User: Fold these one by one.
Assistant:
Number 1:
Amino acid sequence: MSSPMLQAVDLQCERDDRILFRGLDFSIVPGTVTRVEGPNGAGKTTLLRILAGLNDHFSGELLWLGERWQSQREAFLRNLLYLGHRPGIKPLLTPLENLRALTAVRRPVSDQAMKQALDGTGLQGYYDVPCRNLSAGQQRRVALARLLIADEPLWLLDEPFTALDRHGVAGLEQLLLDHAASGGAAVVTTHHELALPGMARITLGASPAGETPS
Ligand SMILES: Nc1ncnc2c1ncn2[C@@H]1O[C@H](COP(=O)(O)OP(=O)(O)OP(=O)(O)O)[C@@H](O)[C@H]1O
């Protein structure tokens, strides 16, 4: 098996005097999809934001390629693509303008490649429509088009199946499988019954009420 990209060692997170999780150890290995599962409030979004470097309310260690995350911050952030549970797109911009804005901070991507990515998520014919005029599922597809032009090996996706129809779900499942087959890794929170071949699982919070700190 390949060496882990990302490792969590003894992670603990407490919120408002409730322990969301503790003693959490796992490895994210190239070529895998990992599902983070658990009831509402179990801490799935919180965990994903910790992994993305967006939340430092935790104890324990995160290792990127075997080194402490803090010493590898720049390399780590360059290699990770995080999509939050909201589509995170600007309603006044078109799908094409949103993709330009989302990719500009990373690397140049041609309009042709962006149009192909939008086609890949079923948005052909919607390149120039302001996103506020798109449906919830179409807005989600704009955000997911980012994955089709991603070169980041680690994807952290929070509820990416939200608002997708059956074809959208199947397309995203295939995208995750293709990403893993090409040596990438994805960590996905979802309430959708995701069960991909070889999928790993991180299960949080048997009880939505969480534990009381001792
Ligand atoms: N910034 C914050 N400050 C205080 N508490 C927070 C904060 N963010 C989240 N929480 C609390 O942490 C708990 C876990 O929230 P989180 O969003 O991670 O759960 P989740 O498993 O993703 O839930 P869902 O399935 O409903 O999306 C919740 O009880 C929430 O109120």
Number 2:
Amino acid sequence: MRAADLEVYNVSWAPTKSAQPVLHPTTFRVAAGRVLGVVGPNGAGKSTLLRLLYRFQQPKTGYVRVGGQDIWSMPARNAARRIAAVLQEQASAFGLTVREIVRLGRTPHRSGFATSGAGDEQVVDRVLTTLSLRSLADRDFGTLSGGERQRVMVARALAQDPQVLILDEPTNHLDVRHQLEVVSLIQSLGLTIVVSLHDLNMASGVCDDVLILKNGQPQGFGPPQSLLTDTLVSDTFRVDARREHLASNGASHFSFTLPN
Ligand SMILES: Nc1ncnc2c1ncn2[C@@H]1O[C@H](COP(=O)(O)OP(=O)(O)OP(=O)(O)O)[C@@H](O)[C@H]1O
């Protein structure tokens, strides 16, 4: 795995030319190997921002550079060798086996109509092992549990051998054990990672930096311990947020109540 710098400059997006932007100009940088968390209330623009980062949608303004190169100045196949995404929508995966889905991650590395080669199969085997999926390799994706499916989608992204990994709410639908497993995996990869998360305690624990969005506007960027103040979190999420330090290990933990 080889990480690369991700540079996001002044990117904005609107559904049509005349529509109001759902993402206003946003700028940040994620150094190679660092983890950025994107947080914000429902409809804040998190998924919209991520779609610009994995080259699904083109920004109306600004640019996204990976390793110094604008991702829209290179062919889609080259971008797919650099950036992989783990998304929540997985409809296309039904009807395929786990191995077939993970193999799809190798597509950007093949030329023309070439079929999967020995090198590709080695990568697929390695990734299946890393994610403890070998025993499920021949199972139909549709028969897996939510947690197992999530692991398969991460495996497909890793088989892509990307420099940057984008994860849209990867812990959704996962039980506590599997949430922790996904988080620990994210921390261990050594890739440049952008991950949207709803759980602020998880974001504080796993991310080097956090970007807060609200109504498509960036509200702040920085290390979670200094950025996520009670005031900023309360204002952004329209709750009363209080950060406490757990006596057991000193880790910080947010608790939330509705304002009076
Ligand atoms: N293609 C589109 N056309 C019109 N509006 C859109 C489009 N894509 C996104 N939006 C709007 O942009 C806003 C931000 O959506 P987005 O999905 O990025 O938010 P989010 O922060 O990921 O939300 P959630 O936490 O609920 O998943 C929403 O109001 C959404 O309806």
